[in-house]
Amino acid sequence: MRDDRPVLRGGIVQLPPRVSSKAVNREDRRIRLAIVVHSMMRGGAERQIFELLRGIDRARFNTSLVVFNTAQNAYPAEAFTDCKVLLEQETGSASLLRRSISLLLACYRLTIALKECKAQVVHAYLPTPSALSAIACLLLRIPVFIVGRRNMASFHRRGNRVLQWADRFPLRYATAIAGHCEAITKEIVEIDRFPAQRTFTIYNGVDTDRFTAVRNPRLRAELGFPDSGFVFGIVASFHKRKRHIDFVHAAKEISDHIPHARFLMIGEDRGTLREIRQYIEAQSLAGKFVIVAGTAEPEKYYRCMDCYISTSEVEGLSNSILEAMASGIPIIATNVGGTAEIVTHGESGILVSPYAPEEVAHSARLLANDLDLCARMGRCGRALAESKFSLRSMVEAHEHLYEMLLSGGPRASCSILNSVPDPIEK
User: Fold this and answer.
1) I want to staple 36 with a disulfide (CB 3.0 to 4.6 A). Which of 129, 214, 363, 405 is the partner?
2) What Rg, from alpha-carbon coordinates, does the chain have?
3) How far is CA 272 from CA 155, 241, 268, in A?
């Protein structure tokens, strides 16, 4: 009997490819794909990589995952056919000299790893993995090198020449760039002067079986929310750019007008959680807030919310907003990055200006006082998630991109390879 259990050997997770007996005979013809990322921590890009590797057609693709370290791995080993670890420890707090040596070592090991897996297509995510992958692909003459851009360059690298160099260096050698919203791909063309015909958009996907429009009254009660309470929620790491402080500002104004309003914040601490807790105390709102500092099961908390609020000052394409839409919740979100590409203003949610908690509070009062409007927006968001942002669509778009670039097939300017978000009739 064949043993299909994952095996760990020397830092490499190996899993028998999930292919049929007919496909085994064609294994050498499969496209050899390597995805390079810093780590598989719990984050937006990492979640999409996990779903891509889990869903990709193993009969057509022989996949490898290359990570810099496993210090913050949040995903099970069985998701990956082949995982190569370049660095065993996190180096962020080390000296400049030690970090430089570590990066050189990582570049050397990356080159060896890509040579061993005989990669034909390399897809690197985020600046440092992309820069090192560019060098390795150049040395090995790998035919297809794709840079995965997940951040709004105009925001995250402004005034920082090191980041500008790290972001732009791999573009010199890239076959193509894949962004996850049009806002990002347009920036690549306009700011970085990258050829439009080699720039592609692949929207994130959301698991609509995991995130559903089923409410959870039992958990609401366990969290201390009254039956009559209207719960506003946010799911985002406690990082300065997520602007939780604006969420609390808005909560203060909402509470003054809606006494039964309650607030739920979910996210890992990335530096601002303590400050936010102190500010909530200072505003005498502690009795109305519940904070969950990180979870592997965000879906159960969406089921406790009546409205989702995003107060970010910058976004690419928010996984959390997609998850809230799939959960049938109306959205209030700052109109930044690619948010307007997924939230249809007035239909699936309300778009507000960034740094404007008073607009958030006004929209929140509007929804809390009109439950029919909440229900209509929730249904519209759920329909959008199902029809336009499925995981299958996201995976197939990547498969098409890899095959198209490797074959040298036709390319289109700023192509959107999966769904184009059109308004849905109410």
Assistant:
1) 129
2) 22
3) 19, 10, 10
For 166, the enclosing helix (H) or strand (E) is helix 161-168
Under a CB-based contact definition with an 8 Å cutoff, are residues 184 and 206 in contact? no
What value does the mean pLDDT take over residues 155-169?
77
CA-wise closest residue to 228 among 306, 283, 303, 299: 306
| Cα within 13 Å of Cα(179), Cβ side | 25
Per-residue tokens: 46: 């990492």
Q: Tell me phi and psi for residue 60, to 5 degrees.
A: -110, -20
pLDDT value of position 348: 95
- Which residue's entry shows tokens 């105009």? 154
CB environment 99-112: b (16+ within 10 A), e (fewer) = eeebbeebbebbbe
10 Å CB burial of residue 174 (0-12, 13-18, 19+) is: buried
**Gap between the Cα atoms of 33 and 31, Å rounded:** 6
Apex 214 CA angle, 209 and 216, nearest 5: 125
Structure tokens at 261: 């309003």
Q: How many CB atoms lie within 10 A of CB 281?
A: 11
What would the two tokens of residue 248 be?
């609390």
